[in-house]
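[scheduler] slot 2 assigned
[scheduler] job type: sequence-to-structure, two independent chains
[scheduler] chain ordering preserved from manifest
[runner] begin chain α
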Amino acid sequence: MNGDTHLSIGELARRTGLTVRTVRSYSDRGIVPPAGRNAAGYRRYGPEAVARLNLVRTLRSLGIGLSTIRGALDRDTPLTDLAAAHAEALAVQIRVLSARRAVLMAAARRESTPEEMDRMHRLARLSEDERQALIREFLDEVFSDAGAVTHLAGVARSMTPQLPDDPSEEETEAWIELAELSQDADFRACMRRTTGHHMADRTEVARRAGRAAGLPVRDAEAVIHGHAAPARAAGVDPGSAQAGPVVDAVTAAYAQLCGRPDDAALRRRLAPRLDTVNDPRRERYLRLLAVINRWPAPEPLSPELDWFRLALRTRTAA
């Protein structure tokens, strides 16, 4: 062999910045095979070995395993194909690591027990089908009394989270909290009561009007928001006499919605509906849903509902 064109392991190591031990290991694995041996039996490498080792070093720095590299080099796989395949593999790893970090961040904030951390980890690892099954079971219970009412079926669909294929840590953490919330028996009961109240109002309106229960009517909270928001924004004290006309306007509108007289019985009917619909967990669910589905944050109703509850209580007592 011509010594001017072939390199020893030591020379190859110096040209590539690798150690002799690393070059020998790659050579033993067949990643950089020698071109031959000299008279003393030492391995000699052709000049192409330098380029091959530089490529191997680059791919290793990107996290590609030696078995993958050797297979690609043996098959003369185009570098672009190898890069694309590894990029996809890295994307999967990033999603997994992002989910793990979201679990750890949530656990740290909540000072979670090992059992709680394990539960969060399992929720973060659910497949799309498993996530949908979990939420479907929750919504089936919440809307079990609604039957096939088209309007509420649409509401149920609008309450279904769709975690993106590439969720951020914030979205993953929101999913974990929402999933935990959906499994809370007390929250389920609260949501079912809200649906029951909603259906009772709609059914009564339909019965009195002689039409199908599925026809849309305004919700009590929408009526309250429409009247209470301006009063609250104007700084009206809910315990003051100025709040009285607002309460009267809401109860009159609600009486018309239900087809009932605006009397003390109607106000007793409205009070528990406000207690149920104003559960802070309901608003939290909707905010988490918006994060997961990448929707704008919903407008909070709690300030207006809190204002009206106090105004109604004061007015009823008076």
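[runner] end chain α
[runner] begin chain β
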Amino acid sequence: MTINVKAEAMDWIRKAHELGPQIAARAEAADAGDAFVAENMKLLKEEGFHAAGVPAELGGGGASPAELSEMLRALARHCGSTALAFAMHTHAVALPAWRWRRTPEAVEGLLKRIVAEKLTLVSSGGSDWLDGSCEAKPVEGGFRVSGRKIFASGCPLGDLLVTMAVQETPEGPTVLHMAIPLKAEGVTILDTWRTLGMRGTGSHDIELKDVFVPDAAVTVRRPSGKWHPLMHMVTLVAFPLIYSVYLGLAEAARDKAVAMAGRKTSDDLALIVGEMDTELAAARLALADMVACTAGDEPGQDATNRIMTGRTLVARAAIRTVEKAMDAAGGGAFYRKVGLERIWRDIQAARYHPLQEKAQARLAGRVALGLPID
């Protein structure tokens, strides 16, 4: 099952599949050596994928969120790390592209720069979320920002860190949204990414030491720990794209398992494969609803609840699909050369993006009971 997209825009999905073998060829070595998938990311940029989500009117690829979802899902079938690292750039582009249709003056400059300068954006949203992190001290003309960001996927080749810092004000902690050049003085990428899975995403820590951020680089100010309209926008646009990667991984695991099962015809195997396909169908339906929410809903409490519920459902079902794929493939799945155990490790990352399962369930319960969500 695929999510409906316009036929003329399917080119990005086709191109992702065409590049798949090149991307897959580097995946095993990156995983084995904890190495960033730099060549894959460079290839995607050379082919114009970095601007796929920029509106065509501004020189970009004009891909809709649904098309970007299918593109990332296709990439994930070949390399989870490449797809996830690229998803973090993609959603950081998709959000201003979504806003451009409503308030173009606020984001048009950034979108034009992505095209003209071939910028790669790096997000720290997963480590910041509602509370924000790092300290912003007011100075003449702006702020000095210090602290440490984690899970900065794609940072070894990144250009702009799209991030947050917290200023102490009389009204309480205030989160400042800002973009910081990764080559700015005081910015250091720390070689910290040693993980169970998604080893090639280059999601290192970034240390900020008295980095100067001009007032003009601060785009939004909001209370720490509160659901602000911008965070509802982030949820609406970003999470269907991120979780497209996990669906693509589950689909790849399913296909590998069926191929390994070969001509075996036992009822026990048929049961496992049927359970696997049932879980995969659940993941596909949940992601389709998330994408439909992006296309049809406005950001706010209800849309956020719908998206985050989908996020939990996709994560659960995708992880279970891969577990069933391991069962269906049998002992052969234990060998690294097959690639299933790498998918099993990569899919575990679906657990850790916000809102994690308990926090999501609490949000859903508060919405159902008519309680404040902050």
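[runner] end chain β
[qc] chain β: The chain has eleven helices and eight strands.
[scheduler] slot 2 released
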